[in-house]
Amino acid sequence: MINKFKLSACALFLAITGFAQEVEFTEYELDNGLTVILHQDNTAPVVTTSVMYHVGAKDEDPERTGFAHFFEHLLFEETKNIEKGSWFKLVTSNGGSNNANTSDDRTYYYENFPSNNLELGLWMESERMLHPIIDQKGVDTQNEVVKEEKRLRVDNAPYGQILAEVKKNLYTKHPYRWATIGSMDHLDAATLEEFQAFNEKFYVPNNATLVVAGDINIEETKKMVEDYFGPIPKGAPVERVNVKEDPITEQINATYEDPNIQLPAIVTAYRTPSMKERDAYVLNMISSVLSDGKSSRLYKKLVDEQKQALQIGAFNISQEDYGQYIVFGIPMGDTPLDTLIEETDEEIKKIQNELISEREFEKLQNTFENRFVNSNSSVAGIAGSLATYSMLYGDTNLINNEIDIYRSITREEIQEVAKKYLNPNQRLVLRYMPKNSDSE
To answer: What residue stretch is flagged as signal peptide (predicted)?
Structure first.
């Protein structure tokens, strides 16, 4: 009787959770090609206004890398109606917060305001799109800002070059091969006209998705969106990157020396499919089995029991065109790097050759259920998810049913996908060493 009661209570909880997570939205397109998504949630007097542009590092000229990330900063500089240096003051003085971020695939800007400042958020984002001032003074100012960011986050950060080195070696054709932050030499060499042309090409309504989420009235918001964004001229069609990589058929070996570290690290990295493919979801689950938490296979074995690793982790970095599956480890004491490779390979082979246990599988399902619930726990989080699913996946309703993909994945499928992608002849082995040390 007690067990039946517990099962019934669990089923009720999941049913309530599933209902609570249903995100209703209205999606449509303006005449100028701008995709608009509205989500009404009147439980708290807050609103998020965000714009995602379908431009990232992969859309850059190979001789002008870093432009997309540069524009993340530059488009806060000044507009026709917002004076230089006033953007952040305008936001904070009206009780708001804002930020932006750039990936290889897109650039995302957002403001969080009390809901009575919805119109202010819409006006500011329309100003960014329609009236940006891109002059030499603004370019020079932001050039110094980006250089300082690169020094702090990459050049002088321990292990700061790992992802850049992985990408450089995994890709030979696709523009994922360069770092998102790009080259400072390329930015220094660029002319003002090149920056202006980049803006004209990519920061246009037909290459963007506007999301308004929170305490709004749908019909009133539609009118404001039309008033502020409708007059913005449509840009020329943007040609998407379409570059295919040849399969990796034998192990790639590389070494990098980092002056900011004292302990070496070992990285094994595999090129994986687009995040839109089902296999990418399975790889997310595999990484969870291997290194999600202290009871995960790699942590329990290499950190807890054998004490061979100071840190260990497996990560599936999913992107629009390809992904990178990365296993990263820092050895404990005198443990050879090759030992970490052998031990992690052994755990991957177990997944390839044996079904994970029912108990492990149940834990895995619970983990992804919790992630799904948490991902939609705030208005700002919902806004980001709606923009991402619409632009990069082409299916906005994934915000509600992506969890069904994870629920449908089987233990057999986990085994098959591990066999398909995580093999020694399909990977990069990167020895990440302290500068001037002897490679092992």
So the answer is: 1-22
Tell me which CATH homologous superfamily contains domain 23-229.
Metalloenzyme, LuxS/M16 peptidase-like (3.30.830.10)
Q: Which residue is listed with tokens 């190979």? A: 62
CA torsion sign for 94, 95, 101, 107 is negative
The identity of residue 62, as a single letter, is P
Q: What are the boundaries of each domain within the chain?
A: 23-229, 252-434
Rounded Cα distance, 379 and 238, in Å: 30
Question: Given this model, what pLDDT does residue 436 score?
Answer: 75
The pLDDT of residue 293 is above 70: yes
Give me the CATH topology for the region 252-434.
Cytochrome Bc1 Complex; Chain A, domain 1 (3.30.830)
Q: What CA–CA distance (Å, rounded) separates 440 from 430? A: 12
Give the Cα separation of 335 and 228 in Å (integer): 61
The pTM assigned to this predicted structure is: 0.93
| CB burial of residue 124 (10 Å; 0-12, 13-18, 19+) | buried
- CA–CA distance, 173 with 15 (Å, rounded to integer): 47
| Backbone φ, ψ for residue 210 (5° rounding) | -100, 130
DSSP state of 176: G
